[in-house]
Amino acid sequence: xxxxxxxxLAAERLNFVAQDQIWRYRLRAETEARQNWNQKxxxxxxxxxxxxxxxxxxxxxxKIELPERFHxxxxxxxxxxxxxxxxxxxxxxxxxxxxxxxxxxxxxxxLELDSEIRSCKGTYARELHWPQQGIH
Length: 136
Prior knowledge:
The protein is an all-alpha fold. It is 33% helix and 0% strand. It is flat, with a radius of gyration of 37 Å.
């Protein structure tokens, strides 16, 4: 019975010389990193108090007087600028409902079908009768 030819992946697994070479490169990189760590990252081991002990306290910034045009204006009453007029009559068509508002809560029922946000995921979950806690 003839043997099956070896795949390249299996041949790479059996290449012990290459695996040993890779292992040696990895060990060399770790050794170099360990030796260079203190040079590059040694400042992280210095206590914070020691780092700030030689620094002078920050000097306060001088107060600059801004020009008049940059001053904040006093708050004015909103009702002085915004006037809410009474609601227009109920639209005759469904297209008229777009952008229409009503001050009477009963008339908004055709606009607000639910207090929840409708989405594809939520609709599908309701069809499956999932509990609300399971819907994210």
